[in-house]
Amino acid sequence: MSTSALPLLPRPPIVVVMGVAGSGKTTIAQLLAKRLGCALLEGDTLHSADNIRRMAAGIALTDEDRHDWLIAIAERIANAAHNGEALVVTCSALKRRYREMLRGDVAHLVFVYLSGEKSLVEARVNERHDHFMPGSLVESQFAALEVPLADEPVIYCNIELTPQVIVESILEQLPHTMQRAIDTRAVR
């Protein structure tokens, strides 16, 4: 795919860029939203002050801690879908039930799973100084991670590739993955 060509999509895309802390969600989502010409929702901005304090103190969030945060993101996704708007979202979406909560009734939602070795992720987290998530929580992120399965609407990306290559790969796979998500949901 050329750097200027955009794929023909069945609907305005809604893409959740997911993965553990330090996988590059924000970088990839910013580039993808720019290429798609759509809004970007940084999921971390919807965390409660209590959740941010917990994470900054090195305390891993529980399912209960994440619940309201996931609901807030899911509501933004549902609103965009209802209004026929494209949206790129960043959210760790570590567990399948979290992804199901985010997807709700949005048949065409696609997840982009950014995967990489723990050592690379730890190095990235330890290099950043402008984020509340400390490197000490990387282990808990990997422990909680349920890698998306083939029956989920997911595009797999290796974070060892450059951001530009990752975004090109996403754009190439997006039409097919969106259509598969729609078709799979229609069968249910």
- CATH superfamily label: P-loop containing nucleotide triphosphate hydrolases
> How many strand units?
5
Order of helices and strands: EHEHHEHEHHEH
CATH architecture: 3-Layer(aba) Sandwich
Low-confidence stretches: none
Biggest beta sheet attributes: 5 strands, parallel
The name CATH uses for the topology is Rossmann fold
Treating each run of at least 4 consecutive H or I residues as one helix, how many helices? Answer: 7
Helical content (DSSP H or I, runs of 4+): 40-55%
How far apart, in Å, are the first and last alpha carbons? 33 Å
Q: What is the CATH class name?
A: Alpha Beta
Strand order of the largest sheet: 2-3-1-4-5
Q: Could you report the average pLDDT, rounded to the nearest whole number?
A: 88
Strand content: 5-15%
Shape: globular
Radius of gyration, CA atoms, in whole angstroms: 16 Å
Count the domains: 1
* Class derived from helix and strand content: alpha/beta
Describe the structure.
It is a single chain. The protein has one domain (14-187): Rossmann fold, CATH 3.40.50. 48% of the residues lie in helices and 13% in strands. The protein is built from seven helices and five strands, in the order E-H-E-H-H-E-H-E-H-H-E-H. It has helices at residues 25-36, 49-56, 63-82, 96-103, 118-127, 138-144, 163-187; strands spanning 14-18, 39-42, 87-90, 109-115, 154-158. The chain has a five-stranded parallel beta sheet with strand order 2-3-1-4-5, sandwiched between helices. Helix 1 (25-36) packs across helix 7 (163-187) and helix 3 (63-82) packs parallel to helix 4 (96-103).
